[in-house]
Amino acid sequence: MNNRELSSTFKLIADLLEIKGENIYKILAYRRASESLSNLPQEAADLWKAGELDNIPGVGKAIAEKIDELLRSGHLGFLEKLTTEVPASLADLLRVPEVGPKKAALFWKNLGIIDLAGLEAAARTGKLNGLPGVGEKSEARILAGIEALGRRSGRTPLGQALPFAREIVAWLRAQPGISAAEMAGSLRRMKATIGDLDFSAATLTPDEVMEAFVSYPRVIRVIGRGSTKASVEFDNGLRAQLWLHPPAEYGTALLYATGSKEHSVRLREIAQKKDLSLSDHSLKHPDGTESFYADETSIYAALGLKWIPPEIREDRGEIEASRKDKLPNLIERKDLLAEFHIHSTWSDGQASIRKMAEAAMQRGLKVLAITDHSASLGVAGGLSIDELARQREEIDTVQKELGDGIRLLQGAEVEIKADGSLDYPDDALERLDIVIASLHTSLRQPREQVTRRVLSAIQNPHVDILGHPTGRLIPDREGADLDMDEVFKGAKASGVALEINAHPSRMDLEDIYARQAAGMGIPITVNTDAHHPDQLDLIEYGLGMARRAWLEPQQVINAWPVQKILSWLEKRENGN
DNA sequence: GCCGTTTTCGGCCCGACTGTTTTCAGTCG
After folding, report:
1. Mean pLDDT of A101-121
2. Using CA atoms, how far apart are residues A491 and A493, in angstroms rounded to an integer?
3. pLDDT score for A575
């Protein structure tokens, strides 16, 4: 059982206990453990073997025993007993907006509803209307919510959400009466996927601003609207929340709207220990007076902390680091001087090598590796050995034409085949300046098999980078079930760099893994996988992931000086 | 159920919005 399965098991327990009406703090304890497990960079099973389960935050004696039972036997008596009391399918009702644990219990006990289909049928036939606390409007909203669930497949990739959110922020900033506006929530934290879009703005005329917001041309539905907070749905299916505060409160407001929830909870705890109460409006003193903060830096300072970059506000140690003034020097766009993963018209790219190189130069890059697909990836027009040789000539020509402004490398994105062998023979790999090995096919192999496959690839002395390690595609395809600890050990031993692929549909490695790997001293590389010159700008998504992983410039080979990059490749070439 | 530079017991983050209430419960973030 992996972390994801453990995490969802404890989330299910929390949901069912909540519907059952259990003590809220017990429920919170299960939720906390569930969150913790999903954020864990190493496998809980390994901690379990080492007898270190209680090192997991939020896991105490009772939950550790349950993890133990799950890992030993694959099932959990406690949950089996619980589901005889509360049907497991009831947890699905909580996914419907407007339906929480109390309503779910109400529908179950009064109408015998135990799943989404039952709820939908009851809502359609007007059976919900008339139950205590449920009227006509609630029933209509629940029905709309169920229909929306069917339409929307969960979370939106950051790559879709961010450009649209920029449009909204630009519009907000142009409104009269708004002195500041930012995106907030998981958007601002650069998470790979986004639920709703969050915005925070500062204004002294909230009524006018709110009126303008809900009248924005692309708003098709107003879900809720007050004087300081509104929730809308746009014509593209995305939903957004806008919070309004006076400029004097903008610091606490933006802090609160940005989250994460776990980070906010920790900050409130710190306030509480100082006998203060932190809200999105102010810091309240015991005598009832309030202090206001117009920017985030000052509210962090009031709590004895340095300002924390949004990308790492996840309660993963950033608060401790901030208190001790040990926050990482996070990598920035200007640090990135090299791009090691792009495609040209030689395979499935849309632009020539020359065009790609010019676009790279315009963006200030000093090194560009041309890494077209290898032969077996037929769908992507992979290159044969002969074509590789001819491509080398073209790269040399373009290099001469463009001069010293940029250093072009000939590379390849070589397929790791199902048996773990690479798609080019060693002598062909040896002639390349840089080699990325990637999984594209047979991702569903069992954990041990797919892990062995990756290990055998990175043990090849010619391989320099493991590309988008898990092969996941957001939002449709889960990545391979790799044993990351083994992959990291292998990468460490062979000196192979692990990629954070910046393409919004990949964002792979994830932050927690990239952080873990970098912590072991494994070089990380952030690349766009661009198939078109414009796509070189996708680097911002990879950068976001790198920052979420706490990465500093020296840990990322794209930020190394050109000479260091070249000598790193040189050294690897010589089997070192 | 978890957790401890106030604590091994008694706490556990805060506020807005909505609908169905005539003073508040439920949901959400």
Report:
1. 91
2. 5
3. 60
Region A9-30: mean pLDDT is 90
Is the distance between the Cβ of A57 and the closest atom of strand B smaller than 7 Å? yes
- Lowest-pLDDT range of A28-42, A164-178, A487-501, A528-542: A28-42
Q: The pTM is what?
A: 0.86
Asked whether residue A246, judged by its CB, lies under 7 Å from any atom of the DNA or RNA strand B, the reply is no
How far is it, in rounded angstroms, from Cα A250 to Cα A203?
9
CB A216 within 8 Å of CB A171: yes
Q: Is the CB of A280 under 7 A from strand B?
A: yes
Which residues are CB-contacts of A205 (< 8 A; sequence separation ≥ 6)?
A: A177
Q: Average pLDDT of A500-505?
A: 95
Q: Which residue is nearest to nucleotide B24 (CA to C1')?
A: A133
Every domain of chain A and the residues it spans? 3-130, 157-303, 333-573
Whether the link from the prior residue into A509 is cis, omega within 30° of 0, is: yes
> What does the pLDDT read at residue A147?
82
- List chain B nucleotides near protein: any atom < 7 Å from a Cβ: 1-3, 6, 11-21, 25-29
Domain A157-303: CATH superfamily, name plus number: Beta Polymerase, domain 2 (3.30.460.10)
pLDDT at A576 over 70: no
Q: How confident is the model at residue A536 (pLDDT cuts 50, 70, 90)?
A: very high
CATH number listed for the domain at residues A333-573: 3.20.20.140
Q: What are the backbone dihedrals phi and psi of residue A235, each rounded to the nearest 5 degrees, phi first?
A: -65, -15
Measure A263 CA to B12 C1' (Å): 16
In A 507-536, which Cβ lie closer than 7 Å to strand B? none
CB-strand contact A468/B, under 7 Å = no
Spatial distance from the CA of A477 to the C1' of B4 (Å): 43
CB contact at 8 A, A269 and A245: no
Which nucleotide does the CA of A94 lie closest to, via C1'? B27
Segment of A53-57, A232-236, A410-414 carrying the highest mean pLDDT: A410-414
Q: Which of A106, A69, A101, A109 is nearest to A85 (CA)?
A: A109
Which A residues between 102 and 131 have a beta carbon under 7 A from any strand B atom? 102-104
Q: Report how far apart, in Å, the C-alpha atoms of A198 and of each of A294, A330, A556 are.
A: 19, 24, 30
Tell me the average pLDDT of chain A.
Answer: 91
The domain over range A3-130 is classified in CATH as 1.10.150.110: yes
